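Box 3.1. Reading complex inputs
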Amino acid sequence: MMPVILWTDALIFLLAAVVIVFVIYARSKPHLRAPWYRVFTGRIAAGSVVVLLAFVVTGLLDSVHFRLRLENNGNHNANHYSGEVLSILDVLLGPIRTRVEKTYSAPFATHLFAKETIELDDGTKVRDYPRLHYGGQHLPDSGEGKWQDILQRSLLAISEALLASALILYATAALLGRRTARSAREMVLAIWRRETGLPWRTLLTITTLLLLLFFLVLNLASAFHVLGTDKVGQDVFYLTLKSIRTGLVIGTLTTLIMLPFAIFLGIVAGYARGWIDDVVQYIYTTLNSIPGVLLIAASILMLQVYIGNHPEYFETTVERADIRLLFLCIILGITSWTGLCRLLRGESLKLREAEYIQAAVSFGVAHGKIITRHILPNVMHVVLITVVLDFSGLVLAEAVLSYVGVGVDPTMNSWGNMINSARLEMAREPVVWWSLLSAFLFMFVLVLAANLFADAVRDAFDPRTRAR
Amino acid sequence: MTQTLLTLDNVCVKLGHGETAIQPVDRVSLAIQRGETYALLGESGCGKSMTALSILRLLPQPIGRITSGMIHLGDRDLTSLPESEMRRIRGRRISMIFQEPMTSLNPVLTIGQQIAEVLSQHHGMKGRVAQDRVLELLDAVGIPDTRRRFREYPHQLSGGMKQRVMISIALAGEPDLLIADEPTTALDVTIQAQVLELLQRLQQKTRMAILLITHDLGIVAGMADRVAVMYAGQIVEEASRDCFFGNARHPYSRKLFESLPEVHKREHALDTIKGTVPSLDRVFTGCRFVDRCDYAWDLCHSRIPDWNRAEKGHHARCHLLDQSLSVPASVAGVRSDSAIAAAHHSRGERLLQITDLKVHFPIHKGIFKRVAGYVYAVDGVTLSIPRGNTQALVGESGCGKTTVGKGILQLLRPTAGSVRFEDIELTTLKGSQLRKQRSNFQFIFQDPYSSMNPRMMVGDIVEEGMIAQGIGRNRQERRVRVEELFRKVGLSPEHAQRYPHEFSGGQRQRICIARALAVDPRLVICDEPTSALDVSVQAQILNLLKELQNTLGLSYLFITHNLSVVSYLADRVAVMYLGRIVEEGPVAGVLESPLHPYTRALLSAVPVIEADSAREIIRLEGDLPSPSNPPRGCHFHPRCPEAMDVCRTQYPGETRNDDHSVCCFLHQ
Amino acid sequence: MFAYIVRRLLYAIPILIGVNLLTFYLFFVVNSPDDMARMHLGMKRVTPEAIEKWKASHGYDKPLLLNSEAHALDKLTDTIFFEKSLKLFVFDFGYSDDGRDISYDIGQRMMPSLAIAIPSLLIGLMVNITFALLMAFFRGTYIDISGVILCVVLMSISAMFYIIGGQYLLAKLLRLMPISGFDSGLIALKFILLPVVISVVSGIGSGARWYRTFFLEEAGKDYVRTARAKGLSESLVLFRHILRNALIPIVTGVVVLLPLLFMGSLLLESFFAIPGLGSYTIDAINNQDFAIVRVMVFLGSVLYIIGLILVDISYTIVDPRVRLT
């Protein structure tokens, strides 16, 4: 096995490290701890965090890449690696990934979506819906007893989920109880009556729902294509899960890339004023005046030309797609940092007149120190709010850009690409709706959770909403 | 004949729900007679504004509500009226004016529209009739050029004018009761005098009652018929004005008097109230003032004092007045010891000399933003401060006094003039040279809430200056010094590990003082250090400043608009008007025999407690002119009651008599 | 005011130069005209002659910045930079890569874009303000809270879902209107209806929620308390006092978009096959027609700058406090 570290993988793990360091830092600072606590005590926000975590875990599992070693055929000296780059998620989803049908099939179908000419054993040919190779293979050819089978598997899944969540509830209660010197039984009651500081009842309810989904998929996906298959017969559920990473990368790395520019330029412009301010304002007005989609389109077109002319730089298609994804993030970052930069410039213009900054100046504190000790910590809430608010917009933007043709690489799994390839099938009769709907549904859940979470963060950190 | 207009009967107000709910008004009862002025006196957060809002049922929504009690206007209980009926009371029977005239008017509606709105709402007046009535009202509140003002927007008026418009809005419904919530707190003292006089005149004409909410004993003395003192959500004393000012009975009321800075207290420390106001989220089992009272004994902790009569129409919630109780002998005579070393300042050698200091801000106009003019914020100020002395700089807002302070510190670079600290010329210093000098002079800001970085622990805040100035070899040494400083300003060293928001206003100002002292300054510029604080807290800070001056030999430049603070603290005083000093001299000379007409007007406008019938208030016309376009000749002549022809053409030179100087043609 | 506008117009010049240089760099320096030609002619096995021919026919065969072979002033003017970038300033847009007159195309396609964009904007504005007012009126109640949650749900749905779902439901299942297409004159109305409805519905979530915060911010101000103390009813307070003030940010926020309406909507126009500037842009991107993309970038920034100036002017109209100097 040869590990493959893609550019975006490295940045994702860098981001994860930054988040962990920030969490440790925030725990020691009351002015950060208090608003975060407020965020997590809200039931809606806490619930969305659980959902977001599920997405993040999937995304992280999909960010550890490697290439498998090929079987050595006689040649013992050289190691040959497969050209296919896989992730942990791919391995976990192995059966679903590899069981490819011929073309479209509806969710839970046992037969293909379109009629084909089938040659029977006796040599006669009929036009009928061919049997799927994998979906519902354990059932008789007529597909009889399918729903009963699904029901059985679902019931099993439900009982497994309930059992698992009961275990989690008990473990949580025992842990919480140890802190407050109460028995686990008392704690379970307290959780049920919402008497805990954090909304444990909501957290556990959402976890139970997620577990339920997990077990349902576990039981059903092994025998059926739960969300059907697409044009080339790939399992739609697998594609949807693979798209999570793309959405997360676009939503987070874009802001990560733009943050240093926005923070540095914004603060320096507001603090230094004068010609520095003029230059920074000129830069962001110019960039802002170019319609975002067009700038992205122009840049991506140029990148396409570049990649097309230099195929030798990229070993695998995954690497090429990855570079394009990274570049898309950079371009999106360039078009979106201006808003934050302007906000920060305004804030630091105000702050430099604040009395505590004046006090620092009257002590002869150096400018760099004033910026890092006084201005930066007092504008971080603006940065944080912008980052969480931008996330969902970027996830949605990915789909639009892929439709326009300047999004992620067509070979990359993304909701935008799924929608783009499926929307043409809306004209079919009957409609092929599943891959379109799965993409929209997953995107909706992620964006909704992010929006709800962002709202809570803004309410907790924005001094204006706090005063109200 | 008196007739009761409004009664509050055991009114309780709650804000918020659940465990965090507070009760800012607790069983308040009062009665206002027709035509009288009833003053509700108290420090910030005592619940006086909430009481007023509860009368109109305008408590902040959705958190505020009246939980019990009755409010009767005549014989109707306002607490049980439906909202539609209540709207016929608001603005018609009871009107209200607020503290901030700047924000209380709708910025996008004209003055005329905002007044006419009341007329159409309550009197059905429309069109021409309404317009005539509006002009009449504007005229009644003393707004000149009413036809033009009618069409203007609030931002085109000065603060005093806006408050007059607010009053005319309140008058439009011809109410029986006017609630005035700190109507002059946001205004300058000369404007305050105008507005208070206007209120009195209108009251005589219309016979309406006024519920005056204020923290200023002087205003109460000048305006009120009856006084109620509020403390921590309750009325603790109620009396007629004369009884109250003659012989206040509640220990809290007395403390309010004693903590006022006055000239005859110069040689002593001011009396202060120990501790802080209790939080209002708990249930009280005894007197609310018990922890801060010099007279408290066991009973005060365990029993809530009821109303006790002192004399006719004068009662207080205090066990001391309860005839049925025998006050322990140990209590009756207790008096807090307030001796402080009498400050004695001789004119030492010169520490700071500023000469002809000018700070001008350019105004840009036109296509290429060329400089089209200047705001002459400070326009030729000369001042010297000797070692160990306190120089006060007084003036109204916008006169440039803060700019002088910042100009000295080089927080704003002066346009011209010199600032010499001992032998060093500060205006030409740059970068690290200036940085090195900064430990010599420090600044204490007006607002202790915004002068500390909310993200830093106060210990680090105090330490910051030491690091920048290289004081203390290592963190250990600096920490020791921080603790020492905390003790010096009356805080416990453990406080260093906390954040600013955990402290009260007074404590924060102490931390700011500790921060300034950390670098061993010799001159401290105090910019209104007590104006955001209540009187009892102000007294603590003034005491501290005085004590530090005695022990450390500090010099102060004390920038303020509060003349009583000046009379208590300062050695010399300079009066500023529109960027220039008009009079300068020793405190006793300037305050007792002022020479400049502006100084005289300023002094006479300050509300005082000892109502002296012979005292004549010199009313100043109009507002402070714009410093970007000062009047020709003497800047003060358009408002001066004694202006002569020469004043309109020429700026007067300085006349010096002993060490008292004045810029006025009357004295040349 | 006049001086202000003149100053802003002068300030626009360096910005447009900046935009121009940036696009020039992107289109001609990052990738040479040779790369472009190769791309258009198919990546593999392109003869150098074919490339030269393609470049010559599109005017890309000149030097980038300095033509050393030309004479006098032509040294500067007979270059790609002058022909393709500087001429944009006089709105000489030239020809697209497939040889069409860009100015003519833009003129033709402006009207259909506006036919969709203007009704969408106006109706959307009214709908959003109405919803926001409703929520503000019932602030703090369950109507408000469920309204906000509904808004968050609505704004979490992808715009493409609204379009595809709307087309499927209204046009395909219910057959209320044609799925896509466009026509001239009054017949256009039936084609416009669906995109406008979809555009309005997809904007409600974010729009209404955003405007609600304006209303609530104003509702917390001191002058509102004054208005209540006058005895005004809650609806008078809302409509006469709060609405007037909250309209200031709403109106100025809309004004900045006005000039950009010409550019049309990429998504709507391409899904509904409307021959506007939005679909023009998308087609250009898909056909990799750099000439058109370059022109649209320039046009977009011109319109954006006009929008910024209009915002400042509109402030003086809606807010008596603002005067431009």
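In summary: Chain B touches chain C through 36 residues (CB under 8 Å).
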